[in-house]
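Issue 218. Parser rejects a valid record. Input:
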Amino acid sequence: MKFKLTATTKVFLGRRLYQIEAVASFGPINCGDLGGWVEKAENISQDGDAWVSGDARVFGDAEVSGNARVFGDAWVSGDAWVSGDAEVFGDAEVFGDARVFGDAEVLWFSKVGSENGTLTAAKSKSGIWVSRGCFSGSIDEFEAAVAETHKGTAIETEYNLLISFIKMRIGK
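Output the parser choked on:
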């Protein structure tokens, strides 16, 4: 065993979550380190260096395995898997039947655009997938939508800077 559920709990979205504690040292985690929050021990594999830290929450039938890390205020729920060397952080939400694995690359930006919303970009088999508000599609489709909707505005400049960063960071 590498971790245990502590007696420290909190209720989140109607579910009782338990803070985890390392009972062995592994990877960068030391015996006695407190981690994040899980609904049940099965949410994190006892194998590998998988870990949940900070105020991150994993619940439902979700599982973190391999050397994956979930930290910050991220949520992983439903039947989602986070595995391999994947990292989920910030205020990211991974849910439903989502699978984040391998050397997954996901970027998340807050307070973006005219509505101060969230922009998420992820590397997929077909390229870069982007989600912002009611838009969901490829980075090229997003770039075209920005040019059409926000042409000549500061919002267009903001989005174009983020698009350039996304392309540089996770490739096209």
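Fixed in the parser; the record now loads. DSSP finds two helices and 16 strands in the chain.
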